[in-house]
Amino acid sequence: MRGQIDKLKITAYEDSKYKSGKKIQKFPNGAENPFYVLINPTSFSINHKIEYNNEIPEGGATGDPKHSKSLPPSLQFEFLFDGTGVTQKNSGNTLINKIKNKSSFAKKAVLDQLADFYIATGNYDGKIHKPYHVIINWGEFEYEGILSEFAVDYKLFNKDGIPLRAIGKATFVGAVSQELSAARLKRSSPDLTHKRTVQDGDTLPLMTERIYGDSKYYLEVAKVNGLINFRQLEPGTELYFPPIEKIA
């Protein structure tokens, strides 16, 4: 809908293959999957870590670090969980909220909001004997992984000591199955046949550059596809890009 703000979405799956058939249908509390946050985070950060073996020769002060492994990127979010009602529409007008039935958000306790989030991300599911793997979507951003840490800072309380506002700090680590990772690498390999649909603005050299990493093969691709005028590609046309060894 025009003008509507996209809410951060968390979709839970049984494993790291992220297949539609393995998507969790409903969470243990009966809530629908995917889970949508009530308030979008103000920022997020992605950390990359590379480990090295740094062997220092006897008598030396420094060595030549050797690459050991590159760890999957981790993702950190800070979420605001609010039960005061100040973030809802017409928050300053009690009468309008009552008329428009906008008071339900204020009544949803912070502890309930935290529980809903944790059920969708880190709660142990007895049916699959582990927490869920999740895909996080926010606009064009997408991340696949598992929750590794969740810390909560309570910031505001009512007269009975019940939390009215909290900051949830969530850390996710990237997690993709070897099968899925291999399939993705395979799909992008220049040593396999690729089929691509021409989009508006595409040129043959540009498409060849994307697949082979070099535009020099565009004449050979034109021959394979029987293109007479390869300078004017029709959007919607399907083209085949054979393995490099077949056109080299």
Please explain how this structure is put together:
The chain has two domains: 9-182, Elongation Factor Tu (Ef-tu), domain 3; 189-247, Membrane-bound Lytic Murein Transglycosylase D, Chain A. The chain is built from seven helices and nine strands, in the order ββββαααβββαβααβα. The chain has helices at residues 94-99, 104-107, 110-121, 178-187, 204-212, 218-224, 244-247; strands at 9-13, 35-36, 44-53, 66-82, 133-138, 141-157, 163-174, 194-197, 238-241.
Strand fraction equals 25-35%
Radius of gyration: 25 Å
Question: Within the largest sheet, what's the order of strands?
Answer: 2-1-5-6-7-4-3
- At the first level of CATH, the class of the largest domain is Mainly Beta
Number of helices: 7
Tell me which CATH architecture of the largest domain applies here. Answer: Beta Barrel
User: How far is the first residue's CA from the last residue's CA?
Assistant: 49 Å
Mean pLDDT: 82
CATH topology heading of the largest domain = Elongation Factor Tu (Ef-tu), domain 3
- Largest sheet at a glance? 7 strands, antiparallel
What's the helical proportion of residues? 10-25%
What is the global morphology? extended
> Into how many domains do the coordinates divide?
2
Unreliable segments (pLDDT under 50, ≥5 consecutive)?
89-97, 102-106
What series of H and E elements makes up the topology? Answer: EEEEHHHEEEHEHHEH
Strand pairing plus helix content: what structural class? alpha+beta
- How many strand units? 9
